[in-house]
Every structure is written in structure tokens, then in C-alpha cells.
Amino acid sequence: MGEKTVKIYGMHCEHCADRVARAINKIDGAAAKVNYKKGQAIVSYDREISDKKIRDAVEEAGYKVTGIQ
Questions:
Q1: Residue 21's closest CA among 59, 69, 58, 64?
Q2: Residue 11, SS3?
Q3: Kind of pairing, strands 2-9 and 30-35?
Q4: Where exactly are the structural domains of the chain?
Q5: pTM above the 0.85 mark?
Q6: What is the pLDDT of residue 45?
Q7: How many whole angstroms separate alpha carbon 69 and alpha carbon 14?
Q8: What is the DSSP letter of 36?
Q9: Sign (positive/negative) of CA torsion 25, 28, 31, 32?
């Protein structure tokens, strides 16, 4: 099990955060806690998930990833 912090630009409300969380949670093995006020998602995972897969999910939801740690 691991964790990544994803910095996200463009979220303005709880609806935005829910949309990002749903997009990330569709990735097999991932679970996201999204905070739109901080502009970030904490992604927990039980198998290795590439940064690209997370970035693609967030950007398909309509937001921009500015960093992954």
C-alpha cells in the first residue's frame, strides 16, 4: 500500500472534488481523498499505479495536474 499527493488546478467547489475523486477511484486499486480548497488529492493504492494513469484520469475529468509526489 502506498500514497501519492496529486496537486490539481481548476477545482472550485465540492462538486469539482467529487468529480475528481470519482475519476481517480475508477482506477483499479486506487482510492482518493480530494480537497478542493487545498487543490490536491491524496491517492492511496494497493498496487503500483503510474503517475500517467492518475494524470490521465484527472485531466479526462476536466482538471489540470500540476504535480505528483
A1: 58
A2: coil
A3: unpaired
A4: 2-68
A5: yes
A6: 97
A7: 23
A8: T
A9: negative
Q: Enumerate residues 6+ apart whose C-beta is below 8 A from 12.
A: 36
In this model, does residue 1 exceed pLDDT 90? Answer: no
User: What pLDDT is stored for residue 30 in this prediction?
Assistant: 97
> 62: closest CA among 29, 4, 18?
18
One-letter amino acid for residue 45 of the chain:
Y
pLDDT in tens, 6-62: 999 999 999 999 999 999 999 999 999 999 999 999 999 999 999 999 999 999 999
CATH of 2-68, picked from 3.90.1170.40, 3.40.390.10, 3.30.70.100, 2.40.160.10, is: 3.30.70.100
- Residues 6 or more apart whose Cβ sits within 8 Å of residue 20: 8, 11, 32, 34, 41, 58, 61, 63
Find, among 53, 63, 52, the residue nearest to 7 by Cα: 63
